[in-house]
Design brief:
The complex is a heterodimer of chains A (287) and B (163). Chain A is mostly helical. Chain A has eleven helices and no strands. Chain B has one domain: Rossmann fold (3-Layer(aba) Sandwich). In chain B, the strands form two sheets. A five-stranded parallel sheet of chain B has the order 2-1-3-5-7, with helices on both faces. A two-stranded antiparallel ribbon of chain B has the order 4-6. The longest helix of chain B is centred in the C-terminal third of the chain and has 20 residues. At the A-B interface, helix 2 of A face strand 2 of B.
């Protein structure tokens, strides 16, 4: 059931794909703003640079938390691509995120603190929706195992349109894109200096960047799960959805954290629950 | 070429300037000049920055701020003084509250003169700074921790005189 080969492929290939996705993202963003934009390989230069810099931290434990963050992010993605249990994947993702928050709390800095608190709010905002997505997939395919969901012939997205839309909503939070980039943001945007990553510098910031590449690939993999019945449509959908995220990023201003939490919960509570209820009703009450 | 020269992140600080040079720095980020094509990103965080771009001259209010930003940046780092006020104090150099150019306080690597400095010359200055940055990295130059001993001493003398 668990496929180790895919896990190893993920660990080795995901940073390359993730870095390229971020590079293409920056290029497209620049073109949308009428600029030339950096080279596609710019994210790799950035991370290479960060590893050439001196490591300065307020508190030594920050480095430990940054390392834990990347380890659990890799674990999350590897377990996902190996076809493991979707619930365990989600718990590992949360654990990784909590390490980032603790890293930000480890430095006694107001910007870092506010960023960490907002990161916690973001976790609160997206977590119900992500768990409902896993539940929805169980209801649709009778399995929590990623390997079985990915290889199913059932068109999951047609059974779970509400949950799919809800997941897209929180995907913006997870990818740290406007209007929901409240804890830290991408590119040259600034929010409360740099939010959770304010107090990380040099190599530890590089680790956080690489974790974000892993996370991006994992999240795009999660989107693919909705289209597991047809790999071609799946890959096309993933590309279109990422382009949509870039468009949303460039056309929306950042909102307040209250709106992020309220709207995510509202969508999770209304759209997903209605979707699940309809699915129960149509399948005759008992799954 | 190292990665350092391909991904310079800058932090800009407007000391006591008229804001003219600072606006020209921000003009570099617009679609017209787009410095991001060189990988240059404007960060708001000294801990993420490689190049410290300062406009305007030193006065009593911004002294500590400049030192604080400089000390918080990780090595290797360079300082670019943009505009004639940052280079030498400019027309304000004889004011009672102005100490002079930025090099009176922290080591400056590149001087970009002009009033206001044009975006082209600012970009040229930053590209020159990349060479310095790379050289500093290869020679493992560690920047000094800047403190205000000289300044506080002067104050103590003044107080001593009053007693």
């Amino acid at each position: 059931m668990i496929n180790i080969v895919w896990a190893i492929v993920f660990v080795l290939v995901a940073p390359v794909i993730g870095g390229l996705v971020v590079g293409i993202d920056r290029k497209i963003t620049a073109h949308m703003q009428g600029r030339v934009g950096p080279p596609i390989l710019q994210p790799f230069y950035d991370v290479g640079k960060l590893f050439e810099k001196e490591q300065t931290v307020v508190n030594e434990t920050q480095i430990f938390y940054a390392i834990c963050y990347i380890i659990f992010m890799i674990f999350t993605g590897a377990l996902f691509f190996a076809g493991g249990d979707l619930l365990l994947v989600i718990f590992a993702l949360t654990l990784a995120q909590v390490f980032l928050v603790m890293g930000a709390f480890a430095a006694n800095s107001p910007y870092s603190y506010v960023g960490a608190e907002r990161e916690l709010l973001q976790i609160m905002a997206y977590e119900p929706m992500v768990i409902l997505a896993a539940v929805g997939m169980f209801v649709a395919t009778k399995s929590f195992n990623v390997s079985e969901i990915a290889s199913t012939t059932i068109p999951v997205v047609l059974l779970l349109p509400g949950i799919f839309l809800g997941f897209l909503y929180v995907l913006t939070i997870k990818l740290r894109k406007s209007p929901f980039d409240i804890s830290t943001s991408h590119h040259a945007h600034q929010e409360i200096v740099k939010g959770v990553t304010t107090e990380f510098s040099g190599p530890s910031l590089g680790l956080i960047e690489i974790s974000h590449w892993y996370e991006t690939v994992f999240l795009l993999g999660f989107v693919y799960l909705f289209f597991g019945f047809n790999p071609l449509i799946g890959v096309a959908a993933v590309i279109i959805i990422y382009l949509l995220e870039i468009l949303i990023d460039n056309t929306n201003a950042r909102v307040k954290w209250q709106l992020v939490v309220k709207s995510s919960w509202l969508i999770a509570a209304v759209v997903s629950v209605v979707n699940l209820a309809a699915l129960y009703y149509l399948s005759g009450g008992v799954p | 070429m190292t990665y350092l020269a391909k991904s310079p992140w800058i932090i800009h600080y407007d000391a006591s300037s008229c804001n003219g040079c600072d606006i020209e720095i921000l003009a570099c980020l617009t679609p017209m000049y787009d410095v991001e094509r060189f990988g240059i990103i404007n960060t708001g965080n000294p801990k993420h920055a490689d190049i410290f771009v300062v406009t305007g001259s030193i006065n009593e209010a911004n002294r500590e701020v400049i030192q604080n930003i400089y000390n918080q940046m990780s090595d290797p780092k360079v300082v670019v003084a943009v505009g004639i006020c940052a280079c030498s104090g400019g027309v304000f150099r004889e004011c009672y509250n102005v100490a002079g150019g930025i090099d009176k306080l922290i080591p400056v690597d590149v001087y970009v003169p002009g009033c206001a400095a044009r975006p082209e010359s600012i970009i040229d200055g930053i590209v020159t700074a990349l060479g310095v940055l790379e050289e500093k990295r290869n020679k493992h130059v560690s920047s000094p921790m800047v403190t205000d001993h000289g300044h506080t001493h002067r104050h103590r003398h003044a107080e001593g005189g009053a007693q």
